Amino acid sequence: MITGNAVIGQSGGPTSVINSSLAGVVEASIRSKQIKDIYGMHYGIEGFMEELLINLGAQPEHILRGLRTTPSSALGSSRHKLKEADLPKVLAVLRKNNIRYFFLIGGNDTMDTINRIEQYCREKNHDLVGVGIPKTVDNDLFGTDHTPGFASAARSNILNVMQAGVLARDMKRVDRYVVYQTIGRDSGWLAAATALAGKREEEAPHLIYMPERVFNRDNFLDDVEHCIERYGWVSVVCGEGIKFSDGRPVSAALTEDKFGNVEFGAMGGASVAMNLHRMIGDRLKLRGEFQITESLIMCAMDRAEANDLKEAYQCGLKAVEMAEAGESGFMVSIERVANSPYRVKYGKAALKEVAVRARPIPGEYINQQGNFVSDSFYEYLRPLISELPDYVELEKRDG
């Protein structure tokens, strides 16, 4: 058993439920007999190296309770890419503050950060237990059925596509197409999730394009033309990371972030939705619109799924439980036990198996044409999304 202080940080983009995980870690740490004080990294690992630490155990009870329903990243986040030269700085702060328990909430790059720090401390004979808590709206982490934050972001996108679809349906004499762009650099989980928006064939979305499939311009325009002929309009959803067969981003983005990833959307100064909109307009000579929400779906607490908030909190509790047991070098995982009724249990995944890599949508979740989801994807997603609104359409009758 190791006795000492703990530190927790939040990394990368936020989610609607990331602070619920933070609350779980803090509350469990306060109760722990092995953890003396629990500190928060102000602005992630970047702030940690500057010794910007917040004493979370000293926070008023109402603030800790309120974290569970507060969006964004309460600690402040960072996208700093950990360098080899940073490791001695990190170790110095760990030793100075007697930190023996190290938690980070984040995605695959974050899990790589924990993994590297945990290994470095082992080499330098500093006892440190490193545990990761999963977070990403992209749902692209290996080792877990789904990530906290995904279901809430999915619901936000679903509602956007539903309501934009009603608008587009009623405005089809003016605008014949609408293109909605979701985030997701390497995987199309969020784009795929919008399939739940349509309860009938004629409802939005009609077409969904994901990074897991090569984008073909001619096939896309044929799909669009077919839908307009069939329904009088078309709703298209696209993942921001879709690419042509030669690897070029459809967004035409060239800017890279600190991790060497292409910056899609507004951050990269380019847009898939805008380019698809232009392709349709150029070929069909019709008017339409495009919609890009970017990071808004990461902080929509009014659309957060209650079960997503609960699971995020439980992941925080589980992280401390694992740390107390000395289970270092792991990420908390969610394992689905059953769909009906929906039940999960919490396990662990090795950081080295999670770090850096992005989990794509399994092939069986995408239809043969590559422009929509399959029935098996609905089975995966439905238990994660609560009841959706039911919008009506006037009956069109003569007389």
What is the CATH first-level class name of the largest domain?
A: Alpha Beta
What is the succession of H and E elements? Answer: EHEHEHHEHEHEHEHEHEHEEHH
- Beta content: 15-25%
User: Structural class, judged by helices and strands?
Assistant: alpha/beta
- CATH architectural type of the largest domain: 3-Layer(aba) Sandwich
Give the beta-strand count: 11
The chain-level mean pLDDT equals 94
Number of domains: 2
Taking the alpha carbons of the first and last residues, their distance comes to 81 Å
CATH topology description of the largest domain: Rossmann fold
Q: What fraction, in percent, of the residue positions are helical?
A: 25-40%
Number of helices: 12
- Principal-axis shape equals elongated
The poorly predicted ranges are none
Q: What kind of sheet is the major sheet?
A: 7 strands, mixed
Q: Using the CA coordinates, give the radius of gyration.
A: 22 Å
- Tell me the strand order in the biggest sheet: 3-2-1-4-5-10-11
Features:
399 residues; alpha/beta; Rossmann fold; 2 domains; 7-stranded mixed sheet; 4-stranded parallel sheet; 12 helices; 11 strands; 18% strand
